[in-house]
Amino acid sequence: MRQLLDYAAEHQFAIPAFNVSNMEQVQAIMQAADAVDSPVILQGSAGSRSYAGEPFLRHLILAAIEQYPHLPVVMHQDHGAEPAVCARSIQSGFSSVMMDGSLMSDMKTPSSFDYNVDVTRRVVEMAHACGVSVEGELGCLGSLETGMMGEEDGHGSDDKLDHSQLLTDPDEAVEFIRQTHVDALAVAIGTSHGAYKFSKPPTADVLAISHLQKLQQRLPNTHFVMHGSSSVPQDWLQTINNYGGDIAQTYGVPVDEIVSGIKFGVRKVNIDTDLRMATTGAIRQYLGQPEHASDFDPRKFYKAATTAMQAICQSRYEAFGSAGHA
Ligand code: G3H
Ligand code: 13P
Ligand code: NA
Ligand code: ZN
């Protein structure tokens, strides 16, 4: 991861980091990367490990590496809740781990700065001794628009927060990097996990891309990570609802805004929801079309999902500038 992000910084691009839980996602991401010659970051969450099981997840990623030997692939563990989780991922062969010390190990309660530094520094010592990279997180993901925390912390809608708490503090960021030596830093700029980020197309007061510039002025050599970076494709939202779904109107992070963030040091862009929506839309559409009413071979609708995901991956590789850099 560190080598890839250093290279991306030198060439002023970012790499989308896609969450994976199954074979079709891995294949879609790899097929797209192969088509445009991009390096790849595959990431597994605690949820993906409990869905697929650690050996299946590990072997899916090893299969990707084996089938595409010409593409650099990072196997990253997303949102580790405590150092022990990161230790197990290092043992399992991940080349990069995230210690998310912005929350306590329940992954709900915001933590103190000192706790965050302590757990992250311990993971960096352990991981770097094994040649594994570390991502830390400083600040709370949530929505500036509602003043609520996002899915990440699980707080209810009445939990109003001071907006400033939702933006990574530049002084703290400098101190965090100095004390932990993380390879990449996830920062809070107004995004949140999941589909429900913004109730209207986001403006600068709720999606603080300009805050990245402030952080970069203080930390010109730090690689920033944007979490909650799905764009929530409106066409897939429509398709899901046209074929029996019921998802409320919602907006994500526009690709153009992410591209502006890349000018201010964003090097890794986490995307999960967009591929989930493409999968759900493609499968609903396939099965809902009258001409497919008698089909029962799941490979047909899995293939539709893979094709839908591949198109999104390919357009992100191109937009973020990683295409051509494998
Ligand atoms: O960070 C959140 C990712 O979207 C992973 O979600 O925990 O449901 O696998 P998950
Ligand atoms: P989205 O829910 O916006 O896809 O974010 C995913 C993420 O940040 C995973 O760590
Ligand atoms: Na991560
Ligand atoms: Zn995340």
TrEMBL record:
Its EC number is 4.1.2.13. Dihydroxyacetone phosphate binds at residues 194, 228-230, 270-273. The active site is at 78 (proton donor). The keyword Zinc applies. InterPro entries: Aldolase_TIM, Class_II_FBP_aldolase, FBA_II, Fruct_bisP_Calv. It comes from the Bacteria. Pathway: Carbohydrate degradation; glycolysis; D-glyceraldehyde 3-phosphate and glycerone phosphate from D-glucose: step 4/4. Binds 2 Zn(2+) ions per subunit. One is catalytic and the other provides a structural contribution. One of its GO terms (molecular function) is fructose-bisphosphate aldolase activity. Keywords: Glycolysis, Lyase, Metal-binding, Zinc. Its cofactor is Zn(2+). It catalyses: beta-D-fructose 1,6-bisphosphate = D-glyceraldehyde 3-phosphate + dihydroxyacetone phosphate. One of its GO terms (biological process) is glycolytic process. Zn(2+) 2 binds at residues 100, 137. Zn(2+) 1 binds at residues 79, 193, 227. Pfam families: F_bP_aldolase. Catalyzes the aldol condensation of dihydroxyacetone phosphate (DHAP or glycerone-phosphate) with glyceraldehyde 3-phosphate (G3P) to form fructose 1,6-bisphosphate (FBP) in gluconeogenesis and the reverse reaction in glycolysis. Belongs to the class II fructose-bisphosphate aldolase family. PANTHER family: D-TAGATOSE-1,6-BISPHOSPHATE ALDOLASE (PTHR30304), D-TAGATOSE-1,6-BISPHOSPHATE ALDOLASE SUBUNIT GATY-RELATED (PTHR30304:SF0). This is Fructose-1,6-bisphosphate aldolase. It comes from Methylophaga nitratireducenticrescens. The lineage of its organism: Bacteria, Pseudomonadati, Pseudomonadota, Gammaproteobacteria, Thiotrichales.
